[in-house]
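Quick one - first record:
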Amino acid sequence: MTRSRMVGAVLAIALAGAAGCGAGDSVDVDGAGDTGGKGSGGTLNAAIGGEPDQLDPHRTSAYYSFQVLENVYDTLVEPGPDLRMGPSLATKWTTSADQLTWTFTLREGVRFSDGSPLTSEDVVYSYERIISEKLNQSYRFETVKSVTAPDPTTVVVALTKPTPNLLASLGGFKGVAIVDKANVESGAIKTKPVGSGPFAVAGYTSGDSIQLTRNDNYWGAKPKLDGVRFTFVKDPTVALQNLRGGEVQWTDNLPPQQVAALKENGGDVTVESRSSTDYWYLALNEGRKPYDDVNVRRAIAFALDRDAIAKAAKFGQATVNQTAIPKGSSWHFEYAPYRHDPAQARQLLGQAGVSGLKLDLMVTTEYPETVSAAQVIAAQLKDVGITVKIRTLDFAQWLDEQGRGAFDAFLLGWLGNIDPDEFYYAQHRTGATFNFHKYSNPTVDRLLDAGRTETDPAARKRTYDQAAKQIVDDASYVYLYNPDVVQGWSKQVTGYQVRSDRAIRFRDVGLDR
C-alpha cells in the first residue's frame, strides 16, 4: 500500500535473508512457545485512526485492515523485533545448493480458528490465489515457478532464479497470510476472516468497531486477553481523551504536537516511539501532462521545504529524507539533490514551458498528516506559480481514485517495509502493482530486476543505490520524510512492544484490572 508509513535510536533493517539460509543450509527452530494456560485478561480496547476497507488480507492494502489482521492471521515465517525473519507456521526450511528450491516444514497440529486443520494445501492455495488472481502481493512471487505440497506438513517453493528476499516476501506482513479456502469461497473473509492467529474476529460493526476474541485453537501460547476491540477514532485529540479517560487502553492515533510532552509527563499514559521503516511521499501522475515532463516534477521537488512539511505533519516525530529507506538502515543511500530553491523551481518550469499550472492534490482524512502536509505544500508551490487544489476524500474513495489514475498528485506513505525490494519494486517498476503514477524507466527496471536476484549483499546494495539515485533524479516519487512509530497505552497494559515495522501484536499483552 500504500500501507501508510526519525528521531531516537534507529533499528537497522536486516539484510535480506540474514536469518534465512545460504545454498544448501537449513534452519530448524521449534519456536512454538508455551501452549498451556488459557488465562483471562479482559478485553483490550484499542483506538485506531480509521476503518478497514475489508478484512481479506490478500485484497486489502489499507493499514487499518492490517492492524486488525496482524492479530488474526499467520504467515509461513515472520519478522522478529529485530526484523529478521524467523519461524511461524514453518518451523524449519532448507535451500538447495543452487538456491532454486526451498523446502519448508510446517508446525504440526495447527488449526484455523474454526477448528479445521491447517495443512500444506492451505499454503499452496493461499499463494496460488495471490499469483493466479494477480492480487496486491503478486509481485512478491514473480520468481516463484511453483508451490507444491508433497505431504501435509511440507511445502516446496521452486524458483526460476535465486531470490535472496524470499523469506521477507513470504512473511514480511500479513498481506501474504495463509487463508482458509472455504472462508474465501463463501465471501465471509471480507468481514469475518478465519485465520490461525492468536485472535479471531467475533463481530464487525461498520463505522464503529471490530471485536476480536481469543482463539483457543491457537498453536502458540494462548493470549492472556479474552479479546481486543478495535474502535475507529479519526480525531487524535479524541483518541487521547479516550485513552486518558480509560475508554481505551491503547492507541497509535496521538496528536503529534503533544507527543513530546506526553513522553515527559504522560501521567497514567505511557507513550513510546521508535524509528520506523516507513516513508511518506508526494506522487505526480506521469500519465497526465505536464507531469510526464521530468523538469516539471523536479521543479516541484525543488519548490518543497521538507523540514517545514515534516514539522507541520509530525511535530518533530520524523526525519527528512530524499530517498525511501531510513538513515538507520544498512540499505540507506545518502543522496539529497534537492534543496528548497524556488528560483530553481521556476527556472525548470520555464524550461518545460509551463506557467499558471493548477494541480489537483488528493489527500485523505484517514491520514490527517496528509491534510496538514498538503496545506504547507500548497503554500510552497504557490510561491513558484503553481495553484494547488487540495481534494480531501475518505480512504475508500481515495483508493478508488488512485487505482483509476484520477489524480494529478497524491500524498501518502508506505508502511512496514523490510527488504529494499519492498521500498522500490512495486512502486517504480514499469507496470508494477502499485505504480499508479505510471512511472517508467528501463534503467530502473533493469536495476530493480537485478536486485531481486542478486545474492551478494554488497553487490545488491550497489544495485539498489543506483536504482534509488535514478528514481530520485526522475522524481518518480518526491520523498518527504521517515516518520517515527508513536504509540500510547494505559498503565494497565503489560507486555506490549512498539515495533519499527508498525506491526500491532497483542498476543503477548496482558491487562491488569
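second record:
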Amino acid sequence: MSLDVKNAIQSGKTVLGIELGSTRIKAVLIGEDHAPIATGSHVWENSYVNHIWTYSVEEVWEGVQDSYQQMADNVRQQYGITLQTVSAIGFSGMMHGYMAFDEDEELLVPFRTWRNNITEQASKELTELFNYQIPQRWSIAHLYQAILNQEEHIGNIHFLTTLAGYVHWKLTGQKVLGVGEASGVFPIDLNSKNYNQTMIHQFNELVVPKNLSWNLEEILPNVLVAGENAGVLTEEGAKLLDVTGNLQAGIPLCPPEGDAGTGMVATNSVAKRTGNVSAGTSAFAMVVLEKDLSKVYPEIDLVTTPTGNLVAMAHSNNCSSDLNAWVGLFEEFLAAIGIQVDSNKLFETLFKQALLGDPDGGGLLSYGYLSGEHMTHFEEGRPLFVRSSGSNFNLANFMRVHLFTAFGAMKIGMDILLKEENVKLDEVLGHGGLFKTEGVGQGILAAAFNVPVSVMETAGEGGAWGIALLGSYMINKKEKETLEEYLNENVFVDQAVKTVSPDPKDIEGYEQFMERYKNGLSIERAAVENHQ
C-alpha cells in the first residue's frame, strides 16, 4: 500500500471522473500523479422504444450511483478508507442527443441519443441555412426536427441539454456545458468560444412562424472552457451521487464534456496536427485542424477541443456491436460443447487470428450496421455478412473483415480529410475496446489511415480518466498555463506508448476491401428495404 496514495485520499487530494458511455458508465479516481487509484463501472445498454434509441432517467442514475459506489468500495477495500471528499469532480457522457425539460424540470420526451438517425430533414435545412455542417445527431437538429414534426412538447421547452449536461445540472444546479460538448449542441464561434450568435439569430428568424414561447439562446446551457469552475456539488447532489451519504457537498466541478473531448484529453490529442480514434459501440476520429476546411462536407463534423480549438470529426454510428455479437456466438458454441473460456482470452485469440488473414480479407464483405449509419446515409441498418463463391472463407479472414468494417464508415470521412483536404497528421492515438488486444486494432487502423497509430498504457481508462484530468487541470493549473502545456508537462511526460506503423501490403489490402465496401452498399440498402 502506498502511504502517499492513502494520505491523498484522506486529505481529499484526489479527483473523480465519471463518464456515461454507450455500454458502460465508468468512475475513475486519480491521485496527485494523475494515475488511477480506484475504479468502478456499471454496464448498461440502450433500448429501442417507439423507433427511438434511448436510456431512461432511472437507468442514468442507477448507473451513475452504481459506478460511484463500486469505486468507493474499491477505495475502502484497498486502503481501508471511507471516501468523503475529493478536490474536484468531472462528468462526461456520449455526445449530442436531445434532453428537453419543462419549467418544472420534468423530461418532456424520452432521451434521444446520438444513435438516432431521425433528423435528416432538419439536418439538411440547417446545414443549408448556416452553410455549416449540422449532423443528424446534434441537439439542434433534434430540436428543429421536433419543430418540423409539430411535436406537442415543443412549446413547453424550458431547458435543452445533453446527457453530461443533465447529470451536471442535477448535481450542481448549474446549466452549463464545456465548449467541446456544446459544439455538438450548436455551432461554436472560435473567437468568442461561445455559440455562434449569427446562427442563433438565423435560427430564431427561421422559427418565427411557429410562434414559440422561447428564443434559442434562452433554452441552451451556458458555455465554459476547460479550466473554468462549473459550480460545486450541492447537498442534494451529494446525496444523489453517493446514496450512502458519506460524500460531502461543496466539491468544485469542472465543465461537463462529451466523450469526444475527454478522448482527446485521455490521449493527449488536443494540440494541432494530432488526432485520436475512439473505437467502441461507435467509432470516431478527431483531428485538430491547423486551418478551416475548404468547404462543407456532410461526412465531416466540425467541433472543438475542450479549450475551443477547431476539430474535424469523422463519426460513424456503428463499430464494435456486430463484431461483439459474433464473438458471443463463438463463446456460445464453446459453452455448448462444454468448454468454458475467459471472455478476454476469447477476444484476444480471435483478434490475433485476423493478423493471419489475407491483406484484403479474402474477398469477404461485412456491414456491422446494427443501427442507422449517417456516413453512408442509412436511417436504419441491418448487420450483414456476405461472401462470393470465390472468397477465401476462413476464420482469419472472417475476423479480419469484421475488424476492417468496424472502421469502414469512419474511413470514408477520413479519406476526405487526408486525401481531399490534405490535412497533415503526425500520428493517431487509439483508445477504446478495439485496441485492447495489442497490435491488432492498431495495425488495421494504421492500414486504413496510412498513419502510425499509437496506444498508451492508460488508453483502457478512456474518457473517465480524461474528464478526471480536466478536473485536475481546473484546480492545479498555473496562471496562463494551457491545457496542452499541463498535459505535456504533468501527465504524459513519462507515458509509455506503443506505436504500429502501416504496412504497405496492409494499406493496399484495406483499400481493396473499401472498394468492395463502397460498391456493396446497394446490398445493405436492399437488406434494409426488404426488412421494412
